[in-house]
Amino acid sequence: MSGSTRTGDHRGMPVPDGVEGERIDAAIARMFGLSRTRAAEIITEGNVTVDGAAAAKSDRLEAGSWLEVTLPPPPEAPSARPEPVPGMSVVHEDADIVVVNKPAGVVAHPTVGWTGPTVLQGLLSSGVELATSGAAERQGIVHRLDANTTGLMVLAKSEAAYSVLKRAFKEREVDKVYHALVQGHPDPLRGTVDAPIGRHPAGDGRFAVVAGGRPSVTHYDTVEAFRAASLLEVKLETGRTHQIRVHMAALRHPCVGDHLYGADPVLAEYLGVRSQWLHAVRLGFQHPTEGRRVEFECAYADELAASLELLRED
Description:
- The structure is a single chain.
- By secondary structure, the chain is an alpha+beta fold.
- Helices cover 20% and strands 27% of the residues.
- The protein is built from seven helices and 15 strands.
- Strand 5 (89-93) and strand 6 form a beta hairpin.
- Its EC number is 5.4.99.-.
- Keywords: Isomerase, RNA-binding.
- This is Pseudouridine synthase.
């Protein structure tokens, strides 16, 4: 098996019932939570065999065959270097937590392949000391926002706060409220989307409503209706990747500017919206050490506010 990289996590198993007849690249992606592209790369590198023979990505799995997969170790994530982040502001800070208003184009922490700014870099450059629990490149991170979603994020400064907040997010004890500008007018104007979310079958980085996905619940209510769009208040019961974007797209009312999920580029250009119109407007939780209920709110980014004014003028 020339070209094989025999490092990382090696697994052998009979072909599972649920993937019989599937293309190997699709099956590997589903079994190990990978993108279809990454699964195909692993197969091409010679890290997948069926009954001892190297597999091709278009082969189909047969019942009774013995499948062996070697998952190469993931590349190490870069560490966070202090660097100012223009547009990011601190909404609240005390000995245990810091709450920031994150601008678009900023991710929570360093990741492989991301060369832009991060929330961690901005805070470290301001001298904020964060909890060191968890992976080094994710210090203090207890939840995340998409790179182009704006608004409130809370980070832990003390180890005690980190443990309490991680558990609070996991147990759905945190109130997360978003405002989303979506295309058209949802019918009904107020409702709940209860639909499981998983990786899109195309394996291109998108997520979708899929059978067998993780349970996902989104509540929405129309705040203001315009000729071509609606401003919604959205509350999350769960916190799946791209959850609001996926559920709104499933209703055929994608977030304005969300080209990944089918938004109209003409409307986005007219409104001056360069990425999905989605803002984490309120965040409420029990303070991790003081025990009192705290709630934070932040205003829209200038670009988002300007687009609403333009719609109101229409």
